[in-house]
Every structure is written in structure tokens, then in C-alpha cells.
Automatic annotation (TrEMBL):
<protein>
    <recommendedName>
        <fullName>MarR family transcriptional regulator</fullName>
    </recommendedName>
</protein>
Length: 176
């Protein structure tokens, strides 16, 4: 029974997306249903996600304020191991990792990485997003998009790309 309880509390990729969304909102107030609607995730999944994040110490007991230090530490040192990704086939999609802003302003690369998306207007190696609704959820949220692309750079990048993404991500989260 204890094992079942433990696995129920293990983080899932959408937990990272939800916490990044809360950070992207900054000082704006939010509710479970608004997060759910904006991310295309069910309200019950948002609630379960916040419970897992609370268990992991990534959000406060009221499940409203992200523990930025702990979350940043997880992103910088754990996300690539917890949710690894390898570039796939060349597909149409939306730019991510070092191919997207803000990292494409710093890193010059001929390789392009994209989230697969039929309506996308770029071609590159497929990177599976942390959650299936990410492409639509970021279409109207530049801040969330940039945070997620930096997380992808940590998940798939080479050492230099990872280090640049880590510095930029840390700066944005801790100063948000």
C-alpha cells in the first residue's frame, strides 16, 4: 500500500508545465479552473498536479505560491533526468529549445528543434513537449512559451546550450 501512495505522489511532466504557468502569471491572481482552461488540462488534473508539487516541496501548503528556489533547483539539475528527450525525425512544428527565443538570440545553430504541430511553420527535429497541450497553451502566452523552450534546451541541449538555458531560466524564475 505504501508503494501505491508513493507513486501517486511522483511528479509528472504536466506538473512542470503548471508550475511554469503560475510563474509566467507573475503577480496576477489565478484559480484552478483558469489554469486548467489556459493550459487545456482538466481541472481535476490541475488539482492533482498541485498536490504532487506540494508533496515534492515545489509549491506552498496553500498550493498558490511556487517555491522558486526548490523548483529552479529541480529544473536545473533534475528535469533532464526525470523527463529526458532525444531529438526525433524532421517534422513541421513550432520552434523550441535553442531554436526559439530567447536562446536563438544567443546561440547560433543550424539545427532546428520543434514541437510537432501540423499548423507550425517551421521544420526541424521533433522534440516531444512536456505535455500534449503545450503548443496551443503557449500560442497566446509568450512568457510561458519562453520558459518551456528553455526547459527543453536543458532536456535536449549540448553542454553549452544547457548552461546558457540554465542561467537564463534561473534569472527569470528567481527574479519573477
Amino acid at each position: 500500500m505504501e508503494y501505491m501512495q508513493q507513486s501517486k505522489n511522483n511528479l509528472k511532466p504536466q506538473d512542470v508545465v503548471i508550475l511554469l504557468k503560475i510563474i509566467a502569471l507573475g503577480e496576477k491572481s489565478w484559480f484552478h479552473h483558469t489554469i486548467a482552461q489556459e493550459l487545456g488540462i482538466s481541472q481535476s488534473e490541475v488539482s492533482q498536479s498541485l498536490n504532487r508539487s506540494k508533496y515534492a516541496g515545489l509549491i506552498d501548503d496553500a498550493r498558490k505560491k511556487v517555491n522558486k528556489l526548490a523548483f529552479t533547483e529541480f529544473l536545473l539539475h533534475g528535469v533532464a533526468y526525470a523527463f529526458p528527450q532525444q531529438p526525433g525525425a524532421i517534422v513541421r512544428g513550432v520552434l523550441t529549445a535553442h531554436s526559439a527565443e530567447p536562446l536563438n538570440q544567443i546561440i547560433n545553430s543550424s539545427e532546428k528543434y520543434v514541437w510537432p504541430y501540423a499548423k507550425g511553420n517551421e521544420r526541424g527535429q521533433a522534440i516531444e513537449p512536456l505535455y500534449s497541450t503545450v503548443v496551443e497553451a503557449t500560442s497566446n502566452d509568450k512568457e510561458l512559451y519562453e520558459l518551456l523552450t528553455m526547459v527543453d534546451a536543458i532536456r535536449v541541449g549540448r553542454i553549452r546550450e544547457k548552461e546558457i538555458a540554465k542561467k537564463e531560466l534561473e534569472k527569470r524564475i528567481l527574479n519573477a
